[in-house]
Every structure is written in structure tokens, then in C-alpha cells.
Design goal:
Chain lengths: 232, 232
DNA sequence: CAGCCAAAAATTTGATCATATTCTGCCGCC
DNA sequence: GGCGGCAGAATATGATCAAATTTTTGGCTG
């Protein structure tokens, strides 16, 4: 079941509308694997656990459905989609293409401030890997990529990349939960080095490899599990 | 203003929920340029013109916003987005990548029935071009690509491609409305020929060129108009 | 006296909620 | 094992409240 946690209008949210807060909350839960693949999501469950009305919750769910983060099961049921092997290969194909381009653009527009922030995030990521902090790893890894996207200044590409993260987020959590963070590939060091050298294509190449390796590893783990019904 | 037209529960829709009908209606209006770039869209306007309640309309709008087909203007106004030169180049990049891959997959899974249907759609497209029927051209062209996607059997790639169509639909309509259908490139003939020859990479190449030429032509026209405020 | 800026009321639109209605799935009964 | 009712959840509506834009009006200045 979804744990009860009221929406807190934290300082950053200021006066965001409720449906936006619900959306952000749900999105983070999916992205960082707090909802397992296949788990059912009900409107009433969310109105209760989030303390919001039905209309905002409905809107948030529709939005996430349209982003592929939630799936409509035909008979008005909604659940977190289970990524198939075939789905994952499609995701891999697009991610490699889009994220390489985003990296290219980011490399051309990089500022010293942003580069420094990237180094910091990468350090946090390393620490999460060492201590085996799965949640921290997922967040740092996403933040690293997200920051790069924001530097790239390409809203349409960024939005599409974000959408893909939502698709494999839940499965990534499952994979990490099962096998730990130790052998996850991390090409961020190479990326940062190429960044400092001003090697645009090098950054793009490193990104493509980072994506490919991470995704292929996921594909390997998922293929072992395909068809099984156990979670975590 | 948006013209008044009640939702008709046509035979195909059968028992679709209202919010789905509203979504489909609005989507088609945007995709085929019945709403101009920059045009404002209000909830109350749609509840009146479509004869639906607020909740379904709200959901449909949220969904389309999340697809990039509608834009939130900050002060809770919603409008059809105006495609900038920069946006368009991002769209071009992804379309080339995704649609080439879709064409590749479609070529491998093509059936005689589907190939025949494609020929028919291409013929309809040619006729629309000859008679200068802009609406017919837009529809046939979309149908041609959509059929190819469905053959490719790659839901995630297809969904992303569809999303991109929604982004440039309104602008494409403007371009066609201004310059007619005569000099629009059309690589469909090459694509069909390669398809019959079983030349998978040839199909992908033809698709990439079809996309590139169509999009670049749009970019050229848009660049002339950039900054102006006149419509149509 | 006319024109203009600004402030405030009024209207329009969006956000949220409570409620009614419809549909789905399940359970018990025949 | 099939059929009908029952419970629960989703869909849809209208009412209500809040925000923003537009209009009006009053005062000031040239």
C-alpha cells in the first residue's frame, strides 16, 4: 500500500496549485522506484494518502499516464507499467540518440559554475555507490543528468529524455535493489574530463556509452526475471 | 473563436468516456491545424463548444499540455504553442532518428495487406496535393506515417513520434496554407519501392530524407516569419 | 475643458470540492 | 457453473471560491 503522507507546501513550492504538487509527488515516487512495476494506483487511495481532492488527483494521474509513467489497464484500472525487454530496447535506442545530442549541446554551452556543480553531484554519486545507498544513487544519477540537460537549453529534447527516465525508473530501482550499486557502470568521470578539455564529441561519446552500458545491464537483469511475478 | 460543434458519439467511439472523446477531438484540431499557433484555449470555452463538463475538459487539456500540444502560459492561461526555429531543429533531430528506426522496423514486419493500404494512402496524398486540398494532404500524410508506425509494432517509439507531430502540426498547417501543397517534398514513392524490394535500409533512408526535407522546408518558411505577429 | 493615468469594481476564467451517477468485479445463491 | 445483486471505485456535474484581466470611473494635469 501507499504510505500516508500529507502534501507539505514546502518553501520552494510556494503557491503551486494542488494538482501540480500531486503530480510532482507522484512523479518522484515513480521515478525513484517507491512504486514497484505492476503496482496498482487508485484515485481514492491517493486522495486519502495525499489528502487532496479527486479532481487534482485525476489530473495528475492523466498527466502521468500520458507520459508513460502510469498505464491504463483497459478496465478503468491504472498501474505502474512493467517494462518488457522489447520496451527497454526502444528506450535504449532513443536515449542513446537524445542524450548524446543533449550532451553535445551542454558541452558547447557549459559554464564553470555548472561544471563545478556537476563535479559535486558526481562525488555524491560515488559516495552513494560506495555506501550502497540505492535511493541516493538513483537521485544523484538523475540529478547529474538533469543538470546537464538544463545546461543544454533544449526544452523539447529535455522533455523527451525526462519522459524516458520515468519509463525505466521503477525497473531500475528493482535492479539496484536486487544487485546493489557496486557494478553499475559510470562514465561520468570520462564525461567530465572531456568537458574540461572542451572535447564536445568526447562528451557525447561518453554519454552514449554511459547510457548504453547502464541500460544493457538492466536489460540483462530484466531478461532473467521476465515472466516471474515476484517483486523487489 | 472556436466553432461550436457538439461531440458526436460516432459508431467507432462506441462507449468511450467523455474525457477521451474531448481529448481526441482537441488532438485532431491541433494536429490538423484547426487551431492556429498562439491561439488561446480556455476551459470554459471548450465546455461550451463541446458540451462537456469541466472535469473531462480539464483532463484533456492537461494531457495535451503534457504532450507539448498545448502550452501553459504561466498565468494559468493555456494556448497553442508557437514553434521557434530552435524548437523546430530539436524536432527535426529526433524525428530523423525515431522515424528512421520506425521505418526500419516496419520494413521488417511489413505484410502485403499493409503495403497495399500504404499505396492507397499515398495515392490519396497525391490527389490532395494536385487539387491543393491542404486539410486532405495533412490527414493523408499523417495517416501514411501512422500506418507505418503501427506496422513497426514499437509502442514507445510510436508514441514519441506522435508527440512530435502534435508539436509541428499547427505550424505545418500555417506553412501549407501560405504556400500551397505543390512544392512539398514526398519521398513516399521511394519508400514504397524500397519496401517492395525488401531493402530495409533503403526504406529507413527514404524516411529520413522525407522527414528532413519536409522539416527543413518548414524551417525555411518559419524563419521568414519569425517575430511577425500575423497569422495564416 | 479634454486627455490620461491609476485605482477599484466587475466580469471572466481557473481551481477545488462535494455529490450524484455509472460501471466493474466479486460474492452468494439458485 | 451460471446469473443477479451488491459493494466499491471511477466518471461526470455543478456549485463555490480564488485569481486575473478588463472595464469603469475619478482625479489630476496640460
Amino acid at each position: 500500500m501507499i504510505k500516508k503522507q500529507a502534501l507539505k507546501p514546502s518553501q520552494t513550492d510556494a503557491k503551486q496549485p494542488v494538482h501540480e504538487q500531486v503530480y510532482q509527488t507522484l512523479r518522484a515516487m515513480i521515478l525513484f522506484g517507491e512504486l514497484a512495476p505492476g503496482q496498482a494506483v487508485t484515485i481514492q487511495g491517493l486522495t486519502d494518502s495525499l489528502g487532496a481532492g479527486m479532481t487534482p488527483v485525476r489530473e495528475a494521474i492523466r498527466r502521468l499516464m500520458s507520459e508513460g509513467a502510469l498505464m491504463f489497464q483497459g478496465n478503468r484500472r491504472v498501474s505502474v507499467p512493467v517494462l518488457t525487454q522489447d520496451d527497454l530496447h526502444q528506450v535504449i535506442f532513443i536515449r542513446k540518440s537524445i542524450e548524446a545530442e543533449l550532451a553535445r549541446r551542454a558541452a558547447q554551452k557549459m559554464t564553470p559554475t555548472a561544471a563545478e556543480a556537476l563535479e559535486k553531484l558526481d562525488a555524491a554519486l560515488d559516495q552513494a555507490i560506495e555506501t550502497g545507498d540505492v535511493g541516493g544513487y538513483l537521485r544523484s544519477n538523475y540529478d547529474f543528468h538533469a543538470l546537464l540537460y538544463s545546461v543544454a537549453d533544449a526544452p523539447i529534447l529535455t522533455e523527451m529524455a525526462d519522459r524516458l527516465w520515468l519509463r525505466f525508473g521503477p525497473s531500475l530501482r528493482v535492479v539496484c535493489g536486487r544487485f546493489g550499486t557496486q557494478n553499475l557502470p559510470d562514465r561520468h568521470k570520462e564525461m567530465l574530463k572531456a568537458l574540461h578539455a572542451g572535447d564536445v564529441e568526447g562528451v557525447a561519446r561518453a554519454m552514449e556509452q554511459d547510457v548504453e552500458q547502464g541500460m544493457e545491464q538492466m536489460a540483462g537483469v530484466l531478461s532473467e526475471n521476465e515472466g516471474r511475478h515476484d517483486s523487489i
